[in-house]
Amino acid sequence: MQPIQEPFYGVPRGVAYCQQERTEELSRRMRDRNVPSAPLQPQMCARPVLTKYAVMPILDQRKEATVPLATYPVYNPERVFNPGSAVAPWSGYATAVNVESTLRNQFFALQNCDQSEYVPSSNSDLYNVRIDSRQIEQTHPLLFKTEQFAPMNPDCFNLANRVFNNSTRTELKNVE
């Protein structure tokens, strides 16, 4: 028995390549999100020195570094993209401690004085809102039209006119 050689409707023969430029652009953009936009300061930590079996444990046993440490600018997330999710360079946090303390209002203790609360000026834009408006011709006349409906009472037999204890089954028996 021979296999059916009829082509399927709507299925092209062979391989169809499409949107390769867009796929390559998206791949390049995703790859670029894994690389920082500038060199980041590495996290250096000094390891403890074993002193249990040392002859003179009060002397520093670490070797001196032969390569000097490179200097990096202070990390600023507004200027440098960090692809990491948790640990950014310490210098960025350390320089913004006062900003965070100001935002948390930690400079003034809880007290009853003028500095304990911030009250904006009555001339600030919090209280004076300016909206520049101009007359525009309404292109959709039915947009703000209020409809007038005829009054309708769905309960024409006046059943269940009390708030509670309405026996509508017995009231329906009396409806003619």
TrEMBL record:
UniProt protein name: Uncharacterized protein
Source lineage: unclassified sequences, metagenomes, organismal metagenomes
